């Protein structure tokens, strides 16, 4: 599903240059969950951004679901993010004025999915993340864990092939974080999605099919 070869990414110039990624090479098999593990500043977020098409590397190649991401123009990248790749961040990123159901349905509205199909998909996802009874509540009326569940459901709305999650439990207490990690493990199996998850949580590492460690911009595992 994901093939990264010889990826490099630096920021700044001269003595101030930061080598965020250095000759990174690894693969993610379809239908698996891979935990990307490393301390703060190790390059995790940069690597996720490059894989998901939010940033371009200085060198190397990234292939996602058969598409060479690093050669896409803006239209191609938009299509990739709309059809193949979805994101979950630790800040939730929900729209405050919309209900849980409406937030989940946003990607489907953008894709102009017919109303009946959109409503069916939203209902299915609300049930999947255990929030059917909270469909009409807005983010401010939900707990942090519930908001992250909505964010996961929204990321799955358009049936992506790859789910990229950057520290999805970073703002949650340990018990709630465990629930979200178990949910992500479950959606990999029930939705057939592939997941690349940046984390430092040992429980997430245990739930993953594989652990890739990153340190000073270099990966192992």
UniProtKB/TrEMBL annotation:
<dbReference type="InterPro" id="IPR017871">
    <property type="entry name" value="ABC_transporter-like_CS"/>
</dbReference>
<dbReference type="InterPro" id="IPR027417">
    <property type="entry name" value="P-loop_NTPase"/>
</dbReference>
<keyword id="KW-0067">ATP-binding</keyword>
<dbReference type="GO" id="GO:0005886">
    <property type="term" value="C:plasma membrane"/>
</dbReference>
<dbReference type="GO" id="GO:0098796">
    <property type="term" value="C:membrane protein complex"/>
</dbReference>
<protein>
    <submittedName>
        <fullName>Putative ABC transport system ATP-binding protein</fullName>
    </submittedName>
</protein>
<keyword id="KW-0813">Transport</keyword>
<dbReference type="Pfam" id="PF00005">
    <property type="entry name" value="ABC_tran"/>
</dbReference>
<feature type="domain" description="ABC transporter">
    <location>
        <begin position="2"/>
        <end position="220"/>
    </location>
</feature>
<dbReference type="InterPro" id="IPR003439">
    <property type="entry name" value="ABC_transporter-like_ATP-bd"/>
</dbReference>
<dbReference type="InterPro" id="IPR015854">
    <property type="entry name" value="ABC_transpr_LolD-like"/>
</dbReference>
<dbReference type="InterPro" id="IPR003593">
    <property type="entry name" value="AAA+_ATPase"/>
</dbReference>
<dbReference type="GO" id="GO:0005524">
    <property type="term" value="F:ATP binding"/>
</dbReference>
<dbReference type="GO" id="GO:0016887">
    <property type="term" value="F:ATP hydrolysis activity"/>
</dbReference>
<dbReference type="InterPro" id="IPR017911">
    <property type="entry name" value="MacB-like_ATP-bd"/>
</dbReference>
<dbReference type="GO" id="GO:0022857">
    <property type="term" value="F:transmembrane transporter activity"/>
</dbReference>
<keyword id="KW-0547">Nucleotide-binding</keyword>
């Amino acid at each position: 599903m994901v093939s990264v070869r010889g990826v490099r990414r630096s920021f700044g110039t001269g003595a101030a240059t930061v080598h965020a990624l250095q000759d990174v090479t690894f693969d993610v098999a379809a239908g698996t969950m891979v935990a990307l593990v490393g301390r703060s500043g190790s390059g995790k977020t940069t690597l996720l951004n490059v894989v998901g098409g939010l940033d371009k590397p200085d060198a190397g190649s990234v292939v996602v679901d058969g598409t060479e991401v690093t050669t896409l123009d803006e239209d191609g990248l938009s299509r990739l993010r709309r059809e193949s790749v979805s994101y979950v961040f630790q800040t939730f990123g929900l729209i405050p004025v919309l209900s849980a159901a409406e937030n989940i349905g946003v990607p489907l509205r953008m894709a102009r999915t017919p109303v009946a199909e959109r409503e069916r998909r939203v209902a299915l996802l609300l049930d999947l993340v255990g929030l059917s009874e909270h469909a009409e509540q807005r983010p401010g009326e939900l707990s942090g864990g519930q908001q992250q569940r909505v964010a996961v459901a929204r990321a799955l709305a358009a049936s992506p092939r790859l789910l990229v999650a950057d520290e999805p439990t970073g703002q949650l207490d340990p018990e709630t974080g465990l629930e979200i990690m178990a949910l992500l493990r479950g959606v990999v199996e029930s939705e057939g999605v592939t997941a690349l998850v940046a984390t430092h949580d040992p429980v997430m590492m245990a739930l993953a099919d594989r652990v890739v460690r990153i340190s000073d911009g270099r990966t192992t595992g």
